[in-house]
Design goal:
The protein has 88 residues and is an alpha+beta fold. Helices cover 30% and strands 16% of the residues.
Length: 88
């Protein structure tokens, strides 16, 4: 099991929304540096790795950015609370 790196930005900063600024993906990073590390899993299907949301396992994609977008905009409070619970 790989050790988690310091997140590229804090959970609080990631969930902060400025309504005047549209969604922008984070700079390139791997799962271990994602602010969502505790609630994003990986699985392999036919030699392709997929990321998925542990709270909504039916949400899967080969791009980490897509799963991070899901976590930020689909029930953001539940995602944020779960991350904070798991990292305390």
């Amino acid at each position: 099991m790989q050790q988690q790196k310091q997140p590229i930005i804090s959970v609080e900063e990631f969930f902060y929304d400025n309504l005047d600024v549209p969604w922008r993906a984070l700079p390139e990073h791997d799962l271990n540096a994602s602010p969502y590390y505790p609630i994003i899993g990986t699985r392999n299907n036919y030699k392709v790795s997929f990321y998925y949301c542990k709270l909504h396992p039916e949400i899967a994609n080969m791009y980490l950015e897509t799963i991070e977008h899901h976590c930020k905009y689909k029930q953001p409070d539940s995602h944020k609370l779960e991350i904070l619970r798991l990292t305390r």
